[in-house]
Every structure is written in structure tokens, then in C-alpha cells.
Amino acid sequence: MKKLRVLVVGLGNVGRGVLLSLSNNDDMELAGVVSRTPERVKKELPGVAVVKADDIAGIKALNADVAILCGGSKNDLPLQGPQFASIINTVDSFDHHDRIPEYFAAMDTAAKASGKVSVISTGWDPGVFSLERVLANAFIPGAVAKGFYGLGEKGGLSMGHSDALRTIPGVKDARQYTHAVPEAIEAVRAGKAVNFKAGDLHTRECFVVLEDGADAASIEEQIKSMPGYFAPYKTTVNFVTEEELKSRCAGFPHDGCVIASGVTGAGNGAVVEYHCRWGSNPEATANILVAHARAVGRLASEGRSGAFTILDIPASYFSRHSREDLLKKFM
Questions:
Q1: CATH topology identical between 4-124+282-330 and 128-280
Q2: Are 169 and 267 in contact, with CB atoms under 8 Å apart?
Q3: Closest CA relative to residue 296, chosen from 278, 282, 312, 272
Q4: How far does Cα 309 stand from its chain's mean position?
Q5: Which residues touch 159 (CB under 8 Å, ≥6 apart)?
Q6: Which overall architecture, per CATH, does domain 128-280 show?
Q7: What's the rounded mean pLDDT across residues 181-200?
Q8: Alpha-carbon distance 306 to 316, whole Å?
Q9: What share of the chain is helix, strand, coil (3-state, %, to 5)?
Q10: DSSP code per residue over 67-127
Q11: pLDDT-based confidence at residue 155 (cuts at 50, 70, 90)
């Protein structure tokens, strides 16, 4: 069977995770890497085809079936997404929840115009947790499903929020940890939190390394007022050295859960929960992106076009197993 040829756009933590995931999926192969800094990538990946992000002819020459866009949601994907959707099938993990309808519309327009398939906003949230929220609400009508992230004492490292911190001028490096509020978790389980807002569910903790001469007070204000990322939340900003950051923020662990509570027809209580725990947040996102790349290949083979989310795709399209095996071994 012809292998799905995958193009990796952006070789950061998620991009490297995609490379690892592709090596574990024998129905796929790496077509090449797109990077703003191709010379750096060529040194890291000798023998791999590497082209610049603005080299449209070079990208097309790689003859890829689908591009996995691994850039950040704040600045990269709003521009890169429609650009790539105009020339190739795509998958991305755009995670600015409030702007997903707007981003979906832009990607749908670009992909339909080019006859391509674009799956957007997939990872474990948005993505897997989005699906769990829809299912919980369908199974318990009227239930409001809430997502919680960073369940342990150290919290969970958020890639999207860390990337947002690093876009601020004067920030040399940064990590952001999300902490779930335990009292909010118990309230949701008890069905007493339908009016909770985002800032009631989590707090955010930032570790920031400044460039020489940067104004710490100004940067802290920019962080705490950043819409969609930090503004609704109680946010703590810690300014640290590079050594302290490496020591405190080693690895990329994250975890979370979705909880929905309500009642069934006879007034009996019902709670649905879905948990995940990831030793590596970027590798988790990468694995989910790769499974969606498989789905993109199947949608494209059916002549479909436009933007899709995890809510629009049959679960069997993500799997490398045949329908017969799925019915026999997974049902």
C-alpha cells in the first residue's frame, strides 16, 4: 500500500515529536521539513529534504500528501494555515479556543478554493477534549463539561502559552505551567459549577528569562493583560535565570481531565470523566496530529475539501487498522 507522505512544517518540540511518531507508523513516511532556518535543520537532520517556508515551488516538489503545521497559534498559524491550505492538505493544532470559529472560516475558504482538506485545532485540547465535551453533553443532556489541566502539584507545562510568552519583546525564554483549582474540580463533579468562568478553574504560573536590559515590570504587565491567554486568570510571573529555568522546567509533562455531571431521565445523578497523562506534552500533540494526518489522507481520497475538526471525522479514519480488525478487536 502506498505510504502517506508527510511534510513537517516547523522543527520545534512538536515537529521533533512528529518525526518520532512517523517512525512508529509504517503506513507513513517523511517527505521533508519546511523551516525558516533550513541550514540549522539540515545540520540536525542530514539526508532529509529541507526547504524554506516561502519556497512554494520547493514545497510542491517534495510531493507530500499532507503537511503537519507545527507552528505557534499566536503568530504562526493564523498566517501559515491559509497559505499552506492553498497548496496542500494540512493538519494543525491551533489552540486559541476563542478564535477557533474565525480560524475555521479562514481555513475552510482557503482549502475549498484549492480543493484541499485541512483539519484544524487538534491535539489533546482542543482536539480530544473537544470530542469528549460533545459526547458528555450528548450522553447527559444539559450537562456542562469542563476541562482541567495541570492536576499535579507542579502543574502541567502548556506549549501554547509558553510560546505566547516568548513572542513578547524582551523575553529570551519562558515556560508556563497551568494549575487546576481543586475546589473547582469537586464543584463540577457535584454539578454545582455550571456558571464557572475560565478564570475560576485554573491559575497560571510563568517562569521568564529576560533579555539584557528588558523592563521586568512592563513585561509582567504585558503577560497578565494578554487576551485569550492570561488576562482572565490569576497569573504569577517569576523572573529566573536560564540555569534556573532549565533546572525548574526540565521536560514537558502535562495532564488533564474533562468532567461533566448532570442527571439522567429519572433524575439519577451521572458523571462522565475522561483523563489523560502525558510524560511529554509535545509528543502527545504530535501523535494526535499524525493520526489526523491519516484521516486527512482518507478524506482527500474521497474527494472532500474544506476545513474539518475532530468532531467531523469518523474515529476509524484515525486508525491504521482495517474496519474488520476494528470491529473484531476494538468494539
A1: no
A2: no
A3: 312
A4: 12
A5: 13, 14, 252, 281, 282, 285
A6: 2-Layer Sandwich (3.30)
A7: 86
A8: 20
A9: 40, 25, 35
A10: EEE-S-TTTTHHHHHHHHHTTSEEEE----GGGHHHHHHHHHHHHHHHT-EEE-S-SBTTB
A11: very high
User: Where are the chain's structural domains?
Assistant: 4-124+282-330, 128-280
CA distance 117 to 90: 6
d(CA 202, CA 279): 21
- Note the pTM of the prediction, 2 decimals: 0.89
**C-alpha cell of 250?**
526540565
Topology adopted by domain 4-124+282-330:
Rossmann fold (3.40.50)
Task: Please report, as a single letter, which amino acid is at residue 247.
Answer: S
Q: Terminal CA-to-CA distance of the chain, rounded, Å? A: 25
Residue whose cell numbers read 469542563: 146
Distance CA 122, CA 125 (A): 7
Reported as a single tens digit per residue, the pLDDT across 223-282 is 999 998 999 899 999 999 999 999 988 778 899 999 999 999 898 999 999 999 999 999
Asked if residue 98 lies in contact with residue 224, where contact means CB atoms within 8 angstroms, the answer is no
